[in-house]
Write a structure and sequence with these properties.
By secondary structure, the protein is of the alpha/beta class. The chain has one domain. Strands 1, 2, 3, 4, 5, 6, 7, 8, 9, 10 and 11 form an eleven-stranded mixed sheet that branches. Helix 2 packs antiparallel against helix 4, helix 3 runs antiparallel to helix 4 and helix 4 runs antiparallel to helix 5. The longest helix has 17 residues. The radius of gyration is 19 Å and the shape is globular. It starts with a strand and ends with a strand. 45% of the residues are buried.
Length: 346
């Protein structure tokens, strides 16, 4: 089989890599997408980036994530990030929900995963005070019917949101407020967008865990987090609603490294079925996208990377499948470490 890893670079990044190679210090931002258990295919890359690629870094590296990306990066910013990432992978891949579990029980079990990621106040302080890894999390505060506690009204709100988004992503601002949670010494350099205005909230030990959990709170699947400390009152949901894979100019200088499950970027959660709506090419000029090859994905059990539909499998089968993918994700890391990949334009 050819290399399991694809490296796709925007025009600026492509020229830079051809001249200088891909050096850790040239990367100023790391991006992590929403996508639930899809991230298992990136686990090996996460481990390699933490243990080797960035291990000697002294300059700040911004981490920008939503949902599963935010959960991964809460590991990156800990003192023993490799161990934190391992705890996350184990807790997530082994999660089980009793038959007939309601949304509250599913939420409690899911939130226990973050208790494994951030088990003590000391771990929270490590994230907040990390001199290199600077955490940035995207969360969405509900507006209109979406903030209702009634499942019927929430469902109606989501249908209205989808209809409005079909016309224009700009209309999302009437249904969800994008909120950017960031550590104290991270500049508010992200999201100065008139189309989807953004609130900026400082991360503290009183709101870090709540923000991380909220960033993965899928509407109608998991309970939102209410009234996060330091932020405006409200019900906070999955940051992937507005920023599923992100569609924005990321930074002005340096490269953006984006380990991802796909070779394309879907802007928001409601854009998944809209084939014509993908991230603008102009926003990707300095992005380096790392993703598995089609051949590698086809070679996995069931011929695909994990996703939330896998919960239809029995627990034993699903956990075995997910852990096989976690183990095989090391193949992507090895390809990246040895340069066994083809560089192509994104």
């Amino acid at each position: 089989m050819a290399s399991p890893l694809r490296v796709l670079a925007g025009s600026t990044a492509f020229a830079h890599i051809q001249q200088h190679g891909l050096r850790a210090d040239d990367i100023k931002l790391l991006v992590g997408a929403s996508g639930g258990p899809k991230w298992f295919c990136l686990y090996g890359l996460d481990q390699y980036l933490l243990a080797e690629f960035f291990k000697d870094r002294t300059q700040p590296l911004h981490l920008l994530g939503s949902s599963a990306g935010a959960w991964r990066f809460a590991c990156y910013a800990q003192t023993d990030a490799v161990a934190a990432s391992s705890r996350f992978a184990k807790a997530y891949s082994e999660v089980c929900y009793p038959k007939g579990a309601d949304i509250r029980l599913i939420s409690r079990i899911s939130q226990a995963i973050i208790d494994e990621v951030l088990p003590t106040e000391q771990h929270l302080l490590q994230v907040l005070n990390n001199p290199v890894m600077k955490l940035n999390i995207i969360v969405d505060r509900a507006r209109g019917l979406n903030k209702s506690t009634s499942p019927l009204l929430q469902g109606t709100g989501l249908m209205l949101t989808a209809s409005a988004n079909l016309v224009s992503r700009r209309w999302l601002k009437h249904f969800y407020q994008r909120v950017h949670f960031h550590v104290a010494d991270a500049t508010e350099q992200f999201y100065h967008s008139a189309s989807l205005p953004t609130e900026h909230v400082l991360l503290t030990k009183d709101n870090l865990k709540a923000a991380v959990i909220a960033s993965g709170a899928i509407p109608m699947v998991l309970d939102p987090i209410a009234d996060i400390a330091g932020a405006k009152p409200g019900r906070y949901f999955d940051g992937g609603i507005t920023d599923y894979h992100f569609d924005q100019p990321f930074i002005d200088n340096g490269l953006v490294l984006y380990p991802h499950f796909y070779p394309e970027l879907i802007p928001g959660w409601f854009d998944k079925s809209l084939r014509w709506r993908r991230a603008k090419q102009a926003h990707l000029h300095n992005v380096v996208l790392l993703c598995p090859s089609n051949e590698w994905v086809a070679s996995l059990p069931y011929g695909k990377i994990p996703d939330r539909k896998d919960f239809k499998l029995n627990d034993h089968t699903r956990i075995r499948y997910w852990q096989q993918v976690l183990a095989r994700s090391q193949e992507l890391a090895e390809a990246f470490a040895t340069g066994n990949y083809q560089l192509a334009l994104l």
